[in-house]
Fold this sequence. Notes:
Blueprint: E1 5-17, E2 30-39, E3 45-46, E4 51-57, E5 66-69, E6 75-80, E7 84-92, E8 98-105, E9 111-120, H1 125-133, H2 157-162, H3 179-187, H4 191-203, E10 209-213, E11 219-223
Antiparallel strand pairs: 1-2, 1-9, 2-3, 2-6, 4-5, 4-7, 7-8, 10-11
Amino acid sequence: xxxxxQRIIKFVTTQHIIDGRPLxxxxxxxxxxCEVLMDDAQGNEVTPPFIDKVIFKLHPxxxxxxxxxxxxxxxxxxxxxxxxxxxxxxxxxxxxxxQTIPHDLNFQTxxxxxxxxLTFKNPKPNLLRALQASxxxxxxxxxxGTNGAGAGAPAGATKRAADGGDKKSKKPKNxxxxxxxxxxxxxxxxxDDLLQIVQMVNxxxxxxxxxxxxxxxxxxxxxxxxxx
Length: 228
């Protein structure tokens, strides 16, 4: 399990009174915005690259209280006269889950920021790459966007791949046979052992092999020459 990755985002809210609009229940009408941002390494405000979608859940008195933003900038612009607590739902890249964070809409200042720390544990490859694009990640996450040998890969999987696969799948090497030693060893066997060996050879015989049993129980097999 990799070390958690943390990122700090912020909800940036702006608001101002709309000139010339009548009061609503004794309060001035205001235009306000709320946007999901983060600061990059140079201190510039940017859209978090690891967020795929944002849902702003507003006060139920709004005609459409759930505002879904599926592409950057993750920002809404509304009008109203009252303060309230909204809920902002962040959906992460690569199906990396979602998180709901409450946010207080107030009119005390024309612009204010509310930072939030997000924690990611064992993110999927695409989400991890997006996190890498937004800052550093703990040691153990490689540049390909996986933790260790790969997302979900067992230990040693990378080495087996480099070696050409599992040892069980390797083909046996062909080794030269000393025919004289083989013939000498066969002559020392009794008849039952010879018959057993002949049976084993017959069981493993292929189309390009010739097997002959002589009258004394000895046998000879050889590869047929390929004349093509």
